[in-house]
Amino acid sequence: VFIEDRSDHMACLGLCGPNALKIIQAVADAPEEMDPSNFPFATTKEITVRGIPVLAFRISYVGESGWELHVPFSYGMSLWDLIFEQGATPVGVETYANSRRLEKSFRLQNADLLTEYNLIEAGLARPTVKEADFHGKSAYVAQRELASQPAYLCTLTMTDNQDKVGVERYPVGICPVVDPDSGEVLVDALGRRSYTTSIAFGPSVGKNIALAYLPKEYAEEGRELLLEYFDEPFPVKVEAVGCKGLYDPENLLPRQ
Questions:
Q1: What is the rounded distance in angstroms from the CA atom of residue 61 to the CA atom of residue 19?
Q2: Which tens digits make up the pLDDT trace of 184-233?
Q3: Are residues 48 and 123 both part of a single domain?
Q4: For residue 160, which of 212, 240, 229, 235 has the smallest C-alpha distance?
Q5: What 3-state DSSP class applies to 167?
Q6: CA 220, 221, 225 angle in degrees (round to 5)?
Q7: Which one-letter DSSP state was computed for residue 157?
Q8: Does residue 76 lie within any of the structural domains?
Q9: Are 82 and 43 in contact (CB under 8 A)?
Q10: 135 with 22, same domain?
Q11: In this structure, are 130 and 220 located in the same domain?
Q12: Which of 87, 120, 135, 219 is the most exposed, fewest CB within 10 Å of its CB?
């Protein structure tokens, strides 16, 4: 087996949204290949777009149907121009990496997925464990056998984002999650303190959304807590425990 790192040789353009299929079919050399009946979700296919060789990956990190279009770096701008000419709206990485993926409760490596928390706490445990051995299997199996976990990654929304002088706030960064009765930052049984791991405004749901690991006794849907931002408390509510999106919770749109 030979592995070659070609990161510096490839460009990637994400095309997602309700009009993604219409746009890609308008420029693909074989538009029928892009039809969902011929291109299932979570599969890849080598296609050409006006002669440009493209590795298309039907996947979505933003809650809508779409593709990642991987091309040799020299074709990147040409592909961009073709897609843009069809009426696609350019958006920055904030949409891809934060706002829209938080509406789906999608986790981000090194932000929400941390070595301090296990996969069960992160809400990513699979239904079964494969029989073959793998690195860390014994520890993982032991974690699965626990009746409950010390903490769970939860989806929170701000129920009021106005500060004390009436300015609407849209927090970013790492914010402490606080017990409204004690005024103290939440701490789980292992001594880990609760902070937001991700936070952004979700345009489809019209709310500020955050992910945070909460101690087991606080990880309850409907639980009201506080989030501190610049030393000011803002009310938040636990919307979901585990991996459950606020937008299209059944995850039907990316597959249609």
A1: 16
A2: 999 999 999 999 999 999 999 999 999 999 999 999 999 999 999 999 99
A3: no
A4: 235
A5: coil
A6: 75
A7: E
A8: yes
A9: no
A10: no
A11: yes
A12: 135
